[in-house]
């Protein structure tokens, strides 16, 4: 990989803009991660050791996952759990997509449980399997868990009809596996929302409880984005209601998502919040930096690494790039890494407008993304100006920036703005305001001392609050309680 660039000489930092005003935090009980040990922040996180036995029958409130874990530790266990983890878009860190299901499956397996992940063939994902498909399926070990991969391609660039067909095909293939009576618990991780269908089959035909994980609230977000037919939204409404009501436990990735689950009839005692966390191994000051050859050593590199879809609103970033170029700002380069339906149009626009301060790269494996974060000076967390995004998202891009120890610029009010304001560890600007986005980038490019201060605060927050390994332990305790 190309070496990292030298940073500009320190200069006096300008005043930090105030974060955008966010929405108030919803009143919802957060099932937070266990508190880190006293020396956690100073010496870095360490893996906790846990008994891997099956949870004992609980004598505590159904939502008390910590009580279930204590009961298990005190009373011993008959045998480990057999867990089926349904996540159509699963990937290992060798892929370029999110790896939450991989990390949590590994954490469950480390506690002694036998975990099988059932997934499809998602664009940019790497499942760890390389053999041929036989009758549309292949399977094998991937780390401590097993993977069953169905030959069902899916990706953000596909149209609505093609993606919907892929969702239904996956549900049809996964249902016999889930309902075969081989598992003690099914974890149904949405989206797509249709992962609930195999979980329903397991519950009805084999009496297997299921945990419903809400990564994105459907149909709330598709309705807010528009473009989905009314009958499809109505079917999604019924499916989401049933999933929230029938699940032995619901895990939401944000407090706003948890409130949608409760509004759909989930028992509040069974609703927990386990947000996306930081991978402190792949991101951080210990990672060797990588910068693309287009980035000059003196340039401040602002990195956006993620999907290039309509929901990401990256046109505003090109608007900001045009403003900076028109001003003669030569200290900054914007790097966009990833794939998506909007990428060809974004690249064509950048070329048409002669945006010399913008570089595109294809999607990269997670380790390479960590190296790009180490080589960048600013991390961008951007979404389209949809009000529902304020409390109903838990983006990995924000967590990756914190873990890397880089100042984060977000254009989202609500949850993201609150996280960035803590420390502070970045700058929040309103959505749909490319001039303010350009101003935030220019201020950070001109202020290495400011970048240093915000970046140190970002890493401190990542270690203290968002370590994925601690969040994985919380997820495991909730799963064990759901199966008890």
TrEMBL record:
Residues 1-33 have a biased composition (Low complexity). CDD domains: GT4_WbuB-like (cd03794). Pfam families: Glyco_trans_1_4 (PF13692), Glyco_trans_4_4 (PF13579). It comes from the Bacteria. Residues 48-73 have a biased composition (Basic and acidic residues). Residues 1-75 are annotated as: Disordered. Residues 98-277 form the Glycosyltransferase subfamily 4-like N-terminal domain. Coiled coil: none annotated. One of its GO terms (molecular function) is hexosyltransferase activity. Keywords: Transferase. The keyword Transferase applies. This is Glycosyltransferase involved in cell wall biosynthesis. It comes from Neoroseomonas alkaliterrae. The lineage of its organism: Bacteria, Pseudomonadati, Pseudomonadota, Alphaproteobacteria, Acetobacterales.
């Amino acid at each position: 990989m190309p070496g990292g660039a030298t940073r500009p000489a320190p200069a006096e930092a300008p005043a930090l803009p105030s974060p955008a005003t966010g929405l108030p935090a919803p009143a919802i009980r957060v099932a937070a991660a266990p508190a880190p040990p006293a020396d956690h922040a100073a010496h870095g996180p360490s893996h906790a050791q846990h008994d891997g036995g099956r949870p004992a029958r609980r004598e505590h409130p159904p939502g008390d996952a910590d009580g279930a874990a204590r009961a298990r530790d005190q009373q011993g266990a008959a045998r480990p759990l057999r867990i089926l983890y349904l996540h159509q878009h699963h990937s290992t860190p060798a892929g370029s997509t999110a790896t939450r299901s991989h990390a949590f499956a590994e954490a469950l397996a480390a506690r002694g449980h036998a975990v099988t992940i059932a997934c499809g063939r998602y664009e940019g994902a790497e499942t760890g399997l390389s053999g041929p498909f036989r009758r549309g399926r292949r399977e094998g070990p991937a780390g401590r868990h097993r993977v069953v991969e169905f030959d069902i391609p899916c990706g953000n660039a596909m149209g609505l009809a093609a993606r919907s067909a892929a969702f239904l095909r996956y549900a049809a293939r996964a249902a016999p596996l889930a309902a075969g009576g081989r598992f003690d618990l099914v974890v149904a991780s949405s989206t797509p929302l249709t992962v609930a269908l195999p979980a329903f089959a397991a519950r009805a035909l084999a009496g297997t409880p299921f945990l419903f994980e809400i990564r994105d609230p459907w149909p709330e977000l598709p309705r807010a984005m528009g473009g989905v037919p009314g009958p499809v939204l109505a079917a999604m409404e019924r499916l989401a209601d049933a999933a929230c009501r029938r699940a032995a436990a619901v895990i939401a990735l944000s407090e706003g998502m948890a409130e949608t689950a409760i509004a759909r009839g989930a028992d509040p005692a069974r609703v927990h919040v386990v947000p996306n966390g930081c991978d402190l191994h792949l991101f951080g000051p210990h990672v060797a930096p990588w910068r693309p050859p287009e980035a000059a050593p003196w340039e401040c590199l602002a990195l956006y690494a993620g999907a290039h879809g309509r929901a990401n609103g990256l046109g505003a970033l090109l608007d900001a790039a045009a403003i900076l170029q028109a001003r003669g700002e030569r200290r900054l380069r914007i790097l966009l890494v990833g794939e998506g339906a909007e990428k060809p149009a974004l690249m064509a626009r950048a070329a048409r407008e002669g945006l010399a301060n913008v570089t595109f790269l294809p999607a990269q494996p997670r380790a390479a993304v960590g190296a790009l974060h180490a080589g960048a000076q600013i991390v961008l967390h951007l979404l389209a100006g949809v009000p529902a995004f304020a409390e109903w998202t838990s983006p990995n891009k924000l967590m990756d920036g914190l873990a890397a120890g880089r100042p984060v610029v977000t254009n989202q009010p609500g949850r993201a703005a609150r996280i960035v304001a803590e420390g502070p560890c970045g700058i929040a600007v309103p959505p749909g305001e490319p001039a303010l986005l350009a101003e935030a980038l220019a201020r950070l490019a001109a202020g290495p001392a400011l970048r240093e201060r915000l970046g140190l605060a970002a890493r401190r927050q990542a270690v203290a609050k968002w370590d994925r390994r601690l969040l994985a332990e919380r997820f495991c305790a909730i799963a064990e309680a759901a199966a008890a």
